[in-house]
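Most newcomers find our protein records easier to grasp once they have seen one. The structure tokens are whole numbers drawn from a learned vocabulary of backbone shapes. The record below serves as our worked example for the rest of this section.
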Amino acid sequence: MQNGFVTVHSEIKEIKSDMNDISSKMQNGFDEVHSEIKVIKSDMNDISGKMQNGFDEVHSEIKVIKSDMNDISGKMQNGFDEVHSEITIMKSDIKDVKMTLENETNKNIRIIAEGHRDLNNKLDNALKIENEKELLLIRLTILENEVNRIKARLDEIA
């Protein structure tokens, strides 16, 4: 029986040794997994840091772009304000030109047209007198010719 206990004891020792080996192997496996988890965690922290830096850079660039857009918007607004001001001035100038046309130019054109009509009337009167003068010259020539004929006849008779 003692021999049976020794055998059982020996088997228990062997089982215990196997258990220690398994425990040791499991501990080594856990240590390796733990080590790999630390590496993965470190890699994740690096990636997270790089991503954060990337996000910070993007955020910074967006701020620059936003600032540039605000500058451009301000310049465009100034340009629009200048154009609006110029358009207002041009509208005023156009109104002034319209008023000048209505009040001065059109009046002056009317005066010139009336003067031109008067000149036409005077020209017509002058041409009428010229026509009468030509008719009188023709009549005078006819009468002179008649007088010359009568004179020639008197000279023949006498």
